[in-house]
Specification:
single chain, 297 residues, mainly beta, 4-stranded antiparallel beta sheet, 53% strand, globular
Amino acid sequence: MAYTIEVIVQDNNKCGEAPTWDVSNRRVLWTDNETDKTYQYAVDSDEHGILTQGVVVSGMALNRSGGLVLGGPTGLHLWRDGQWRSIAATYRGEQLKINDMIADPHGRIYAGTMYWGAGGMEKTGCLYLIAPDGSIRIVDEGIELANGLGFSPDNRTLYFTDSTARKIYAYDVHFSTGELSGRRVVVQVPTDEGIPDGLTVDAEGYIWSAQWYGSQIVRYDPQGKVERRIAMPVRQVSSVIFGGDSLTDLYVTTAGQSWVGPYAPPNYDFNASNIGGSLYRIRVDIQGRPEHLADFA
């Protein structure tokens, strides 16, 4: 199937990430997590610009009472009316270096942490559950590079990406407590492809995974079988989200700063001219689902 891939915003983001569809304001939000900026693109006016500045952001969720809940290397923050408030910066002495996150049906946040330096992974990270009352607990650990999260349509399964392990995990979710159990590998990406990054789940329960180094988006069925691939014109495809009036527009973030490391497929060209950096839109024949709202006061 052939798709029309449109460049929506060409800002040369160093690491575009965390695309989010704002239904009420008909706009796409995303971040460049190599800077301290988040961005917005208004669909109706075709205008874009900086939304927040001053805190590095790697993941975001719309907040029920207004504003955004934003995660990054300094923890979890609430941004509202131009003001920042720290929600959580540490847990039991561990700095919460959040790399991706998602709100659940109760307004809590699942947030994955990563600890990487110039020499690679310094230590493994965890998956945390952070509640609006300020309570924090670990729901999984031993994660190399935490990335994309998404819920199945019935909210009984949570998918979570560990990028450098090349795995997408599935967990059973205890609806009221948020506890996770039954972790299993639903996708193991082969070494001749890119590594899985951000993801979203459509209305049919299929996983759409952006492939960093892979120049593609891959749609998997709930058992992890490849259903389709969408080839992208750039190499570092970082994340995806459904938007638009019918949730059939797929917005795709990419990264323009080449990330050199041992996780690329064989013969990968780190100096290629088409690394990435733009925000794209692809109109597809499948409907997405609205994301849950965070619920922090």
